[in-house]
Amino acid sequence: MSKISKFFKGGGSAASKGRGGPSPQEALARLRETEEMLSKKQEYLETRIQRELAVARQHGTKNKRAALQALKRKKRYEKQLSQIDGTLSTIEFQREALENSHTNTEVLKNMGYAAQAMKKVHENMDLNKIDDLMQDITEQQDVAQEISDAIS
């Protein structure tokens, strides 16, 4: 099955169909494939436009009808090229939005992991024990200061 028919018929992996939609990586890959295909089509149309322009110049005033037909084809190709430019812009915007969403999701997931790790670290800590420990440390620092003052 060709890439284009897969794209329009939704020919994806069985895993993506079972979950209700493609993964961000699958969607990004498809968008990139579509961008590549449209870029190739752009190049093709640009060469066709140049060819038709050359044909029109070649016929010039000698064969006006052939020159006019070449200019009409050129205009048609330019219209297709313009449509492809708009489609490419839309796809690029969608791809960037998907990439940003995927990045945000990963950041949020990692922040959740960090929060769980902090919770686990703080599990064994009791505020009363910490207060007592801080008071003991302050008392010991005071004792050390008194000893230091007595020595000097």
TrEMBL record:
Gly residues composition-biased segments: 9-21
Cellular compartments annotated: Cytoplasm, Cytosol; Late endosome membrane
The biological processes this protein is annotated with in GO are: late endosome to vacuole transport via multivesicular body sorting pathway; protein transport; vesicle budding from membrane
Organism's domain of life?
Eukaryota
Q: Which gene encodes it?
A: Chmp4c
Family assignment from sequence similarity = Belongs to the SNF7 family.
Region named Disordered: 1-25
Keyword vocabulary terms for this entry: Coiled coil, Cytoplasm, Endosome, Membrane, Protein transport, Transport
Q: Which InterPro entries match?
A: Snf7_fam (IPR005024)
- Mind telling me what this protein is named? CHM4C protein
Q: Name one GO cellular component term.
A: late endosome membrane
Bilayer topology reads: Peripheral membrane protein
